[in-house]
Each structure stands twice: as C-alpha cells, then as structure tokens.
Structure prediction request, 442 residues.
Amino acid sequence: MSEIVTIQQAVMAEDEKYASRIRRLMRDNKILMANIIGSPGCGKTSLLEETAPKADFSFAVIEGDLETSRDAERLAVKNIKALQINTKGCCHLEAHVVEKALSSLSLDSLDVLFVENVGNLVCPAEFDLGEDFKAAVASTPEGADKPLKYPALFAQAQVVLLTKVDLLPYVRFDKELFLRDVRTLNPKSPIIELDLISGVGVEEWVSFLSDRLRRKRAHVD
Amino acid sequence: MSEIVTIQQAVMAEDEKYASRIRRLMRDNKILMANIIGSPGCGKTSLLEETAPKADFSFAVIEGDLETSRDAERLAVKNIKALQINTKGCCHLEAHVVEKALSSLSLDSLDVLFVENVGNLVCPAEFDLGEDFKAAVASTPEGADKPLKYPALFAQAQVVLLTKVDLLPYVRFDKELFLRDVRTLNPKSPIIELDLISGVGVEEWVSFLSDRLRRKRAHVD
Prediction:
C-alpha cells in the first residue's frame, strides 16, 4: 500500500502546481473563486440559480459531474455562463482539469468564479483547485450528523450553507446539534441557512460573497 | 498518470482475492450479503433500523464511515448487531477491511449480513466486497437526476430503493423521470419506494431479502 500512497502524494504535489497557477490567474484577474462542495442533491445548482438574480457581481460556473451536462444546462436556461466538466467516473475535480476548462472561459469582466464540485462530501475536500475558499453545503434531509462524519470538509470550509430549511417541519433534523458540531470543528466561519425555493438566506449568501470579493480586491490592489 | 492507473488496478486485483474469500465464507455459512450504497443522509441506517422489527431472518451490519461510530450506536439501541469500521478519510469500503472486520463477528446463526457503505454515490460502486448484490439508495430530496449522474451504481444495483417518499409533496422530484432513467440503465431490478418514518415499503424490502436468501440457500444446497 505504501507505494500507492507515495505516488498519490506525488500526483497531489503535481496538482498543487496547477492550483497555484489558477490562484495566480484569479489574483491577476481580480476574480473571487469559490469551490462548492456537498452531497448529491443538496442544492448546489439551485444555490447558483438563485444567486444570479440577486448578485451585484458577474459570475461564471465550472460544473463537475461524473456524467451528463444537466447542471450546466439548468444554469444556461437562467442565462448563467456555465462550463461542464464530465469526470467520467472520477469522484472529484482536480486542478489540472479545472485549468484546462478555464482556457475556454473568458475571464474578462468576471467577478466571481464558482466551481460546483462533484456531489460528494469526501474526496473533493482533499483537493485544492486554487480557490479562495471552499463552501460546505449540507441539506436538512441528510440529517444533523454530517459535520462529525465528514469533518475534513466542515473544518476547512470558510462558509457553511444549511439548505432546505423549509423541510425542517417534515424531517428529523436536530439543528442545535448540527450548529454545535459545526462550531466544534470550525469556530468562526459563517453558517447561512437557506431555503432555495422561497429565497430565504440568498441575500446573506450574496452579501458574504460581495464582502469577500471586495476584501480580495482591496488586498490585491 | 498511467503509472497510477496500473498500480490502482493491481490493488483492485489484490482486493478481488479478499472479495472472493468473503464470497466463499458467505456461501459456506449460507449468509446473504448486501452492500448498501447511497448519498450521505439518504436513509441507509434508518432502513436497517426499520428492517429489524419486520425481518423474519437474523442479521448483522458492518457500518462504514469516515469518522464516528454514530450509526453503529443507533443500531445498537435497536438491538441490532453492528460493527463500525472507520475509514479515516477513505471514501469507500474495501474487501480487505471488511474481511478483517468479519473476523470479529460471529457468523453462527446469521442469515443476512448488511454492509452499510460510506455515504457516497461514486467510489463505493467500484468495489466488490464479496456481496451477493449491491442496493442503490436514493432519497426524493436529492432530486430525480441522480441515476444518470451516477450511472455506475444504478446500472449494477440488483435493487433500487427510493426513500423519503413522504417528502414528495414538499420537494421538487420528478418521479416519472427517476423511474424512467433507472429503467434505461437497469431494465430489471426491482424499485422499492420507502417512507421509513411510517414504514411504507419496508415489508416489500424484507420480502425481497427473504426471497433472495431462500434462493441463495436453494442454490447452495
């Protein structure tokens, strides 16, 4: 097994070079880049659909999926610029794949770049894509035990999004436990509650992004 | 990259030996083994909790999680024999880990062994644990697009479980699309609809298992 680990580490080190190049590209273009990670069906695409009408910044999306271009098509219907990457069985996006995709995306007049990662709480958390921050998404029907079960993601996320709060009356979800466990792993990052059908929480999310964008640009200038 | 693939294949071939040994062990002990795969929070543990009171067979559970023993504790409360494996960051169970766990489980008078895999629709689908069949679990809040997005799992599953049908009035879920897409990938496997709060569908699931157990024993004898 040790041989695999060594080679895996070498590949990850190689991938760090791509991540650094992406980070530099984003800095040079003053673009805020967010890597959005959550379970299948937790509401990642809906989040981006609902972000568009309220955003005071321009954005584009890189969509990661094993198969299909459904998510990019959903976004295109809403006039959101989206680029689909099909990983063909790979359970996460890697920086070299994202860099290749970026070459076919115009970065001019772009403020924010979202990467919607493959629906998976485990593997995407381990890969740096050159993003400014990772956003962890969890939905209420998944249950409150997710932070402690998937601590790597929740500990490093710079924002935690709790989606589908409209389903709280119908599901078994201990919100106090969820919030307490997130805080144990991650004392400071904001936790935003969202209902993406009625739009609850979207303004708070948009204002989090605007603030991060402003701070990045102040820092770069 | 080709070097990684070669070594990965070698590891998977090595793991096939463990899977074959497990398969033989299950045959010798006339135990039906089911590998349960679904997203985080889709209801895998609830399914096993609700199976116990209706089952006309004895069973034990091997629980796979990155961290915590919460699922095994949940099952223990219901007097279900459960063994927790913590994968410490690994996104799926592998046969050599399951074989090691089996050595501390008494197989006497056991009819069915469930493996509740790590919550993940991608990676667990690629690994043979020596099971008789894989069960794919999808919940309605995840959305109807999961089968085509995660085709490897839905194509090979010998039973597809659609959970949380009680939430249908409150979520956007196109059931016709879901059923059609499952059928495109997988023309024959039964699809069972479940509400694990009221117990809808549990008897159908239990009778599917009893039937598979009976057929396996008839075949072994």
Remarks:
- Strands of chain A lie at 32-38, 59-65, 81-86, 112-116, 133-139, 159-163, 191-193.
- The radius of gyration of chain A is 17 Å.
- Residues 2-28 of chain A form the longest helix (27 residues).
- Chain A touches chain B through 42 residues (CB under 8 Å).
